[in-house]
Amino acid sequence: METVKTNTITVEATVNAPVSKVWKLWTGAEHITNWCNASDDWHAPYAENDLKVGGKFTTTMAAKDGSFSFDFGGIYDVVEENKLIEYTMGDGRHVSVTFEQQGNQTKVVETFDAENQNSEEMQRSGWQAILDNFKKYTEAN
């Protein structure tokens, strides 16, 4: 039997907000549509989130010019309020997101299985850009 090693990628940001606010804006579908994009020429016109073990989520990510869109989604494996979310994406890759209260700040760390269509650097920069956009949105609201 052959074992295939999956590389993982980690991105992180420290958000200037308490963990309860960070959690609310991270998990609320009405907020996800405001921050889930890697660049200004993309947006998330639709998000649905059933935040519970076995619950599903879907976010539509689309180019603002209408040239391309895709649904990003998965099923939750672990949900510990204000602490941890783990899910499996539609393609079987695993993601873990931790939320660590640090005074009036929250450290958010996302670790995910890399896919093999795009370079790890491209994946890291895309996920980091979305996380940075989340930080900006959270600190402004």
CATH top level? Alpha Beta
Can you say what the CATH homologous superfamily is?
START domain
Q: Which class best fits the helix and strand makeup? A: alpha+beta
Task: Give the SSE string.
Answer: EHHEEEEEEH
Using DSSP, what is the number of strands? 7
What is the fold named in CATH at topology level?
A: Alpha-D-Glucose-1,6-Bisphosphate, Chain A, domain 4
CATH architectural arrangement: 2-Layer Sandwich
End-to-end C-alpha gap: 51 Å
Low-confidence stretches: none
- Overall outline: globular
> The biggest beta sheet, please?
7 strands, antiparallel
Average per-residue pLDDT, rounded, comes to 95
Task: Tell me the number of helical segments per DSSP (H or I, 4 or more residues long).
Answer: 3
The domain tally reads: 1
Placed side by side, the strands forming the largest sheet appear as 1-7-6-5-4-3-2
Q: Nearest-angstrom radius of gyration?
A: 15 Å
Strand percentage lies at 35-45%
Helix content: 25-40%
Domain Activator of Hsp90 ATPase homologue 1/2-like C-terminal: 16-138
Protein name: SRPBCC family protein
Family: Belongs to the AHA1 family.
InterPro entries: ASHA1/2-like_C (IPR013538), START-like_dom_sf (IPR023393)
